[in-house]
Amino acid sequence: MAKSIVIPVDGPVAAGKTVVGRLLAQRLGYQFLDTGIMYRTVTWLALNNHIRLEDGTALSNLVKDIIFSIDSTEYKSTLLVNKKDISEKLRQPQIEQQVSLVSSSIEVRTGLVLQQREIAKKTSIVMVGRDIGTVVFPNAKMKIFLMASVTERAKRRYNELKEQNKQITYLQVLNDLKRRDRLDSERVHSPLKIAGDSHIIDTDGISAEQSVQKILELRGI
């Protein structure tokens, strides 16, 4: 059996990781996993079960009870939580505001990293997140880090939220992105940073398709 391949795609909020990563996976015929959904899931479950987000022990126990799996078709890979697709529930403003706090928990990160590695044992996969190339798969042969200016990222996220009929201003989105950038880069455990052997792609002013083409060219495709 051929060994599975992992392509980590890291970067800050709204740098284009999900769109680029999903399209790259489709082009390569790989599975796709947005690890941010896993942290959103823990946040959503904690809020719904009235668990304090600072309670590492309770969050750790919560993670142990979650079974993540990928439901894949020819066109899309969906992360299932206990065999259910709950993705529509994970874009609530309160989750957007609290997910960085949950993702800073070493107990949560430790549990989810183990699950991410288990998923990757079964299939070749494009995995996106904040620490995939630095912590989850530091020995991956090819790592991608997507960058974009904070103003460009805020514009993308604002347009995305408006399409979902969310009542929010561009300034609110911009300030929230700056706050999350600070939390992600300054957290003690697995901070957002560029792996020394990452290929850096600036997505300002280019389409997702163009970003994917740059990655495929790096792979010699």
Shape: globular
Q: What is the distance, rounded to the nearest whole angstrom, between the alpha carbons of the first and last residues?
A: 23 Å
Q: How much helicity do the residues have?
A: 40-55%
CATH T-level topology: Rossmann fold
User: Helix segment count?
Assistant: 9
Key attributes of the depicted protein:
221 residues; Rossmann fold; two-stranded antiparallel sheet; 9 helices; 15% strand
Plain-language structure description:
This protein is 49% helix and 15% strand. With 221 residues, it is of the alpha/beta class. The radius of gyration is 17 Å and the shape is globular. The strands form 2 sheets. The protein has a 5-stranded parallel beta sheet with strand order 2-5-1-6-7. Strands 3-4 form a two-stranded antiparallel sheet. α1 crosses α9 and α2 (36-48) crosses α4 (93-103). It is built from 9 helices and 7 strands; from the N terminus they run βαβααββααβαβααβα. It has a single domain, classed as 3-Layer(aba) Sandwich (Rossmann fold).
How do the helices and strands line up, and which of them pair or pack?
Layout: E1 6-10, H1 17-28, E2 31-34, H2 36-48, H3 56-64, E3 68-72, E4 77-81, H4 93-103, H5 106-121, E5 125-129, H6 132-136, E6 143-147, H7 150-163, H8 170-186, E7 198-202, H9 208-218
Parallel strand pairs: 1-5, 1-6, 2-5, 6-7
Antiparallel strand pairs: 3-4
Helix pairs in contact: 1-9, 2-4, 3-5, 4-8, 7-8
